[in-house]
Amino acid sequence: MKKIITSFIFITFLSVFSVSFAVESNKLTNPLKVESVQGVIYLAVDIAMYIGVAFSILALIYVGFQFVMAQGNTDKLKEAKMWLLYIIVGLAILISARVIVEILKNTLSSAGVVDSSVFNRN
User: Fold this and answer.
1) Do 70 and 105 share a domain, yes or no?
2) How far apart are CA 18 and CA 35, in angstroms?
3) Total domain count for the chain?
4) What's the pLDDT score for residue 18?
5) 86 and 76 in contact (C-beta within 8 Å)?
6) Residue 122 C-alpha from the chain's centroid
7) Which of 9, 26, 42, 75 is deepest in the core (most CB within 10 A)?
8) 16-25, 52-61, 84-93: which range is least confident on average?
9) d(CA 30, CA 20)
10) 49 lies in which domain range?
C-alpha cells in the first residue's frame, strides 16, 4: 500500500511539473499533426485500417495453415472455414468504416451543411 501511495504522489508531481513546464514555455505542440476533429477521425480510421489489414493478413496465413493441417478432417475443415468467414466479415466491416466516413464527408459537403474546407487532412 505504501508503494502505491508513493507511486501516486510521484506521478502526480511529475504531471504537475510537466504541465507547468509546458505552460511556461508557451509551446504546446500537437503530436497528431491534425488541425480539426475531422482530421482526428480520419487519422483513427487510417490507423484502424493499417492495423486491421495487417492482422487480417496474419489471420489469413494462420487459416491457410489450418486448412493444410486439417488433412481432410471434416471438423477441422469446418472450423477453418468458419474462421475464414469471420476474417472476411471483419475485413468487410473495416472497409465499410472507411466508406461510411467518405460518404458522410461527401454528403455533408454537397448538402452545404459543412464547408468542404473543414475536411482538410492537415
Assistant:
1) yes
2) 23
3) 2
4) 58
5) no
6) 18
7) 42
8) 16-25
9) 17
10) 32-119
Q: Answer for the pair 97, 58: CB distance below 8 angstroms, yes or no.
A: no
pTM value surpassing 0.85? no
Question: Does residue 110 sit in the same domain as residue 94?
Answer: yes
Name the residue among 87, 79, 81 with its Cα closest to residue 58.
87
Do 80 and 21 lie in one domain? The reply is no
Q: What is the mean pLDDT of the chain?
A: 79
Q: How crowded is residue 63: how many other Cβ atoms within 10 Å of its Cβ?
A: 19
Distance from the Cα of residue 16 to its chain's centroid: 30
**58: which 3 cell numbers?**
496474419
Residue (of 95, 94, 90, 102) closest to 42 by Cα position? 102
